[in-house]
Amino acid sequence: MQFGSISVGDAVGSLVAHSVRTPERIFKKGHLLTDADISLLRTAGIEKIVVARLDAGDVPEDEAAARLAARLAGENVRIGAAFTGRANLFAAADGLVSINAECIDAVNSIDESLTLATLPPFARVSPRQMIATVKVIPFAVDAIVVGRIEEVLQKPALQVAAFRPRNVAVVLTTLPGTRPALLEKTRSAIRARVKSIGSKLVSERETAHDRQALSGALREVPSAADLVLVFGVSAIQDRGDVVPAAIENTGGRVERFGMPVDPGNLLLIGKIGAADVIGLPGCARSPKLNGFDFVLWRLAAGFNVTSKDIAQMGVGGLLMEIPTRPQPRDEPAVARAPKIGGIVLGAGASSRMGANKLLVEIEGKPMIRRVVEAVQASSAHPVAVVTGSDAQHVRSALAGHAVQFVYNPDFAHGLSSSLKCGLRSLPDDCDGAVIVLGDMPDVSTSLIEKLIAAFDPAAGRAICVATRGGKRGNPVLFARRFFEEIEAIEGDVGARGLIGSYPELVHEVDAGSEAPLIDIDTPEDLAAYRKAHP
Q1: How far is residue 525's CA from residue 423's CA, in Å, rounded to a whole number?
Q2: In terms of C-beta density within 10 A (0-12 exposed, 13-18 middle, 19 or more buried), how is residue 156 classed?
Q3: Cα separation of 408 and 417, whole Å?
């Protein structure tokens, strides 16, 4: 790859290295310069520009990132579309991140141009949470380097071990004078944790805090229980104490007592038959993170927990607040995939077509169904279909599709009325919405994923517009911050004026095809489309 400052006249086909602002537009980093762009730059008096030019044998940044992410991802991992040399990977299940750390280190040691970053091993994650990112540093990577990394990634190095339902039995011990409020606090904390891992309580009982009574209670645990939680009213102090002695008295064994995690030091693990047993430390009464969580999560995710495993929890095992900051710190926001709703506009009267254009068959299915299926197959959720002029027939064409139908009684007032109806239907936790026209047959799932991957309001990409060859089209993705302004739009103009008002927040996403520019409004449009797609 060649990189440097060159004459604007020689820059056609090059990638902009640093954003360039002209009175007419902003050329952002990574933009592929065209002849029309060069004219604008010259008109603005710009004679030199810093660019990157790919050589034969170079792999473009997005392709390289996507290839490595595909090799990296294993079970329960979803890959986001690559954008600006970055491909993010997200959890697709509740569970723990399982990582081949040696493999990740080996990849990061091959060449500085390509990096992998992950969450720590055994981090607890939920669906849509980011767990790793692949970043290509330059605009392209030598194909030889990509090949070497793919050789290392022969098998997936990253997966999410999903929580598996466990049948949990709980035994609490008591002493004379034990306060009922303490027992209820203990039960409440345990129930919440069991529920959070998708498991269920099959037994819950109290017994006296002595070896014989606890031994009897453990023998009466239902055979269906595969995880037994023992919470002594007094903390375990020694292997000869009540809880470990009772476990051994029932024919069980203690694997380890004591762990290098604070809070959680006084935890015990063992076995009674095939069932796992945990002797809980007092900190397990608190909902705050402690060593019990580390063990519970691993067991729920299908991992065996041995004495060696616990011994290796010391690095990162200090969970307490430091003395100079005794108050719990605010938790940082968890990096996650943006939640984007999908809106398909299908309320128009098709006056120029003479019949409902959305019902016209394209490759054997109604056009509206073709478009909706592309949106549904993307990560946009929920998907709302706005109907109006021919609502019943549009609904019939989408029979069996899990979409939300939104009827616009004011469809005759123009596109903006349908857009507003669609936005109002989205839940409050949507970060944005991708707006798709129902008469654009070539809009694909991959194009929608490109828009979502590009979306990052914090980085100045709050409006993402599909383009082809520098010409803007549809779909368009808007951040939630613009929903209120869209409410003020009237007529059949959509939100184009809004896009023009915020050039610094607009990011163009080249579709790689003519899809953003192709819509079908007239019989002539349909005939031309069918001729081009025999």
Answers
A1: 29
A2: middle
A3: 7
Between CA 470 and CA 118 the distance in angstroms is 35
Exposed e or buried b for every residue in 389-421, given b needs 16+ CB within 10 A?
A: bbbeebbebbeeeebeebebeebeebbbbbbbb
Q: How many CB atoms lie within 10 A of CB 201?
A: 17
What is the rounded CA–CA span in Å between residue 464 and residue 178?
61
Give SS3 for 116: strand
Of 506, 507, 528, the closest CA to residue 517 belongs to: 528
Q: Rounded to an integer, what distance in angstroms lies between the CA atom of residue 376 and that of residue 372?
A: 6
**Helical H segments across 323-390, by residue range:** 367-376
Q: What is the mean pLDDT of residues 507-525?
A: 93
Q: How many CB atoms lie within 10 A of CB 32?
A: 15
Range 195-223 average pLDDT:
96
Beta bridge partners of 456: 461
Inter-CA distances, 337 with 8, 128, 258, Å:
38, 5, 38
With vertex at residue 481, the alpha carbon angle to CA 387 and CA 448, rounded to the nearest 5 degrees, is 55
Identify whether the C-beta of residue 63 lies closer than 8 Å to the C-beta of residue 23. no
Average pLDDT over residues 235-251: 95
- Neighbouring CB atoms inside 10 A of 102's CB total 10
For residue 524 the two structure tokens come to 């002539």
3-state secondary structure of 43: helix
- Residue pLDDT, tens place only, 63-78: 999 999 999 999 999 9
Walk me through the domains of the chain, giving residue ranges and CATH numbers: 2-53 (3.90.105.10), 58-160 (3.90.1170), 167-311 (3.40.980.10), 340-532 (3.90.550.10)
Pair of tokens at residue 192: 């919440």
Q: Is the pLDDT of residue 352 over 60?
A: yes
- Determine the Cα–Cα distance for residues 340 and 409; give it in Å rounded to an integer: 25
Q: Which helix (H) or strand (E) holds 46?
A: none
The alpha carbon of residue 245 and the mean position of all alpha carbons in its chain are separated, in whole angstroms, by: 46
**pTM reported for the whole predicted model:** 0.81
| Tokens of residue 525, six digits | 């449009």
The structure tokens listed for 122 are 């055994």
Q: Which of 113, 63, 250 is nearest to 169 (CA)?
A: 250
Three-state DSSP class for 214? Answer: helix
Task: Tell me what the pLDDT averaged over the chain comes to.
Answer: 93
